[in-house]
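Inverse folding, one chain.
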């Protein structure tokens, strides 16, 4: 309701305040409880905390790209939901097949290096989508989606191993649960975050494009005159032609603003994915000796 009520409205600020107080109360209660329901003290382990950050960013970028790609396929390329799902299938197959291989590699090589390699490739693949247009072929889209699946396969099994390796054996069960919770929060918040960013950015892009029309060799009035003449030559009355010309110009501006917004969103997600490389440097330290 933030966009409807206003993010600085008393209603939204009250909800955010209540949520912050409730969250802080839960954290404090769990930290000082001798038998906590959720062992948040595991986050005192620096290596585990860094791994949890990588898990969160990796899941967030993965779900965000899936949402934006499917939205682009249906809104601009006019794919049906089933066709969009088929476009995502090769990537899922590649992830499933190569995850086994990456798991075996994590037994040979340090897992964090595999994770960093995968995050680098994932970021590069997402960055390629910043050049995507309505004229981009299905083959190119499928290639980069599949390449992203290939890259992500190196961030699944190795990341799980690197995340749990700093923990004692008695902490593995709770550590695994916390990582699953972390993934769930990232997956649930990804669509909301990327949709909010997309919507706000779309409004900004539309304003900028309308302002930039004054600097073009052919201004808005010239374009409307040309479109109006075209519709009149096709047999429309003057008033109907003017209405159609204005509607077409607005649609052209919105389509162009939307395309730039997709590029901005993909760039933002690519940077988030690349940011996961930094905490990955501190992952995978040796497990402490059992007490």
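Residues assigned per position:
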């Amino acid at each position: 309701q933030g966009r409807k009520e206003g993010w600085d409205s008393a209603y939204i600020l009250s909800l955010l305040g209540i949520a912050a107080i409730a969250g802080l109360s839960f954290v404090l209660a769990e930290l000082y409880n001798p038998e906590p329901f959720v062992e948040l003290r595991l986050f005192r382990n620096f290596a585990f905390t860094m791994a949890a950050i990588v898990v969160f960013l990796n899941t967030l970028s993965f779900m965000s790209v899936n949402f934006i790609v499917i939205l682009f396929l249906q809104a601009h390329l006019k794919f049906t939901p089933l066709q969009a799902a088929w476009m995502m299938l090769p990537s899922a197959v590649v992830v499933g097949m190569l995850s086994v291989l990456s798991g075996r590699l994590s037994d040979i090589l340090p897992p964090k290096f595999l994770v960093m390699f995968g995050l680098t490739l994932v970021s590069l693949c997402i960055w390629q989508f910043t050049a995507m247009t309505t004229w981009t072929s299905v083959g190119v889209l499928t290639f980069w989606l599949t390449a992203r699946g290939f890259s992500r396969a190196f961030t699944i099994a190795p990341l799980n191993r690197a995340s749990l390796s700093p923990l004692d054996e008695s902490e593995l069960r709770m550590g695994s649960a916390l990582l699953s919770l972390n993934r769930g929060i990232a997956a649930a918040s990804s669509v909301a975050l990327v949709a909010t960013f997309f919507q706000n950015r779309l409004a900004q892009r539309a304003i900028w494009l309308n302002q930039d029309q004054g600097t073009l060799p052919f201004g808005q009035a010239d374009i409307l005159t040309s479109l109006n003449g075209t519709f009149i030559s096709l047999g429309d009355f003057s008033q109907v032609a003017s209405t159609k010309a204005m509607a077409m110009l607005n649609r052209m501006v919105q389509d162009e603003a939307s395309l730039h917004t997709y590029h901005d969103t993909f760039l933002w997600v690519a940077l988030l994915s690349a940011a996961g490389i930094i905490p990955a440097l501190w992952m995978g330290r040796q497990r402490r000796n059992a007490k």
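Residues 26 and 164 are 24 Å apart (CA to CA). The longest helix spans residues 172-212.
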